[in-house]
Design goal:
Distance between the termini of chain A: 41 Å
Largest sheet of chain A: 6 strands, mixed
Strand content of chain A: over 45%
Number of helices of chain B: 0
Number of strands of chain B: 11
Order of helices and strands of chain A: EEEEEEEEEEEE
Helix content of chain B: under 10%
Helix content of chain A: under 10%
Structural class of chain A: mainly beta
Largest interface: A-B, 27 and 31 residues
Radius of gyration of chain B: 13 Å
Oligomer: heterodimer
Structural class of chain B: mainly beta
Shape of chain B: globular
């Protein structure tokens, strides 16, 4: 079985500051890792994904994430946030032989203050 | 391309009533998922279809929930009878493949309130 833990339920930051949203996962086999963003009253939108290869992946809106196999982590980062980045962020893991089913964390609410 | 369409956007019903949600995935996406998202939690898988067949419904409360995808395109999720704890957002997602490496495209969801 696979599971995802998002270590911070809420992260407040000031505009133009850097941010890191933390995600740890557990799985006994290889996984694919994803970050999604959910704006109010909308569905989830794929930000980025790690499948294999380079451990640093870049996504939309200036976000990037780094896969760390030894620490089973996949933290999301952005060097300078904007007010428009205020949203909920979900980390998800898919067992690569599990017919594509993703397990999601409980989300981190990022609030960017002026 | 058109996104994943869901309807209705909002629904309020009394407990013990029935309700149905509809989803039309992205054209060509073979895999369709229904997730339940309770306030403050991440989405939880209810059922996964590949074309018109069920791949996984192990988390679907089958005594009250049912889902179908008869022609391998759009899908309907039904709850009958509804309970207060069914209040949640019901998200439909589709994916191009079945191996999990594409990620999902989600619809905007249906927010269900059971009173």
């Amino acid at each position: 079985a696979q599971s995802v833990t998002q270590l911070d339920s809420q992260v407040p930051v000031f505009e133009e500051a850097p941010v890191e949203l933390r995600c740890n996962y557990s799985s006994s086999v290889s996984v694919y890792l994803f970050w999604y963003v959910q704006y109010p009253n909308q569905g989830l939108q794929l930000l980025l994904k790690y499948l294999s290869g380079s451990t640093l992946v870049k996504g939309i809106n200036g976000f990037e994430a780094e896969f760390n196999k030894s620490q089973t982590s996949f933290h999301l980062r952005k060097p300078s946030v904007h007010i428009s980045d205020t949203a909920e962020y979900f980390c998800a893991v898919t067992h690569n032989t599990n017919a594509g089913k993703s397990t999601f964390g409980d989300g981190t609410t990022l609030t960017v203050k002026p | 391309e058109a996104g994943v369409a869901q309807s209705p956007r909002y629904k309020i019903i009394e407990k013990r009533q029935s309700v149905a949600f509809w989803c039309n995935p992205i054209s060509g996406h073979a895999t369709l998922y229904w997730y339940q998202q309770i306030l403050g939690q991440g989405p939880k898988l209810l059922i996964q279809f590949q074309n018109n067949g069920v791949v996984d419904d192990s988390q679907l409360p089958k005594d009250r929930f049912s889902a179908e995808r008869l022609k391998g395109v759009d899908s309907t999720l039904k709850i009958q009878p509804a309970k207060l704890e069914d209040s949640a957002v019901y998200l439909c997602a589709s994916s191009l493949g079945v191996a999990g490496n594409y990620g999902y495209t989600f619809g905007s969801g249906t927010r269900l309130t059971v009173v």
